[in-house]
Design a protein that fits this description.
Blueprint lengths: L2 H12 L3 H13 L6 H12 L9 H19 L19 H11 L5 E5 L2 H14 L3 E6 L6 E6 L2 H20 L2
Antiparallel strand pairs: 1-3, 2-3
Length: about 180
């Protein structure tokens, strides 16, 4: 679903039938997995409030309030860089290599961990890291046999949250007008 769908829907329905538009707003807000707030509703609402013809309609205001509430709640969450090297261990797999990786992720004193293993085990670990969105940079050290997978902790989650915070503040400034 794209934000242009929301814009088109409310531009069409909002000018014809206010009750139908309110029902559409309720529907959009009731299905957050289909109409994702950050990807669909917030950008769509930003566009809708730019339209002189529809921005003051009750349905658009309902979307606007929901977006502002969502953004304000996330902006209110604490945002600080990691104080040590411990990282979230959200690994779905609990095989021996993934268990070792999980212990490394939880260790506040270790920044780098190396797994010397066959290609299959390294590939499995890389896929597990990707799926869990671990705050790790991975590289294959091709010296010696078997090769080694070198995992270095980073602060990618914090960087994503910082970028999201900036976008949330920009969106709030537009929605609060």
């Amino acid at each position: 679903m794209s934000s242009s769908f929301v814009v088109d829907l409310f531009n069409a329905v909002g000018c014809v039938n206010e009750e139908l538009a309110l029902g559409a707003a309720d529907h959009v807000l009731a299905w957050p997995k289909t109409y994702r707030l950050d990807k669909v509703v917030v950008p769509g609402t930003r566009q809708l409030i730019q339209s002189v013809m529809i921005r003051d309609k009750a349905a658009v205001q309902r979307l606007r309030i929901a977006c502002r509430d969502h953004l304000r709640a996330r902006v209110a969450e604490p945002l600080e860089a990691p104080g040590d090297w411990s990282r979230a261990n959200d690994l779905a797999c609990h095989c021996p290599h993934c268990s070792d990786l999980g212990r490394f992720l939880a260790d506040p004193g270790r920044k780098i961990w190396t797994l010397k293993a066959a290609e299959g085990a390294r590939g499995h670990l890389e896929e597990t890291i990707r799926q869990a969105r671990c705050d790790l940079d991975v590289a294959t050290d091709r010296r010696g046999r078997p090769y080694s997978l070198v995992c270095t902790k980073n602060q990618a989650s914090y960087d994503r949250r910082t970028k999201q915070r900036q976008q949330d503040l920009e969106n709030l400034a537009l929605l609060d007008r």
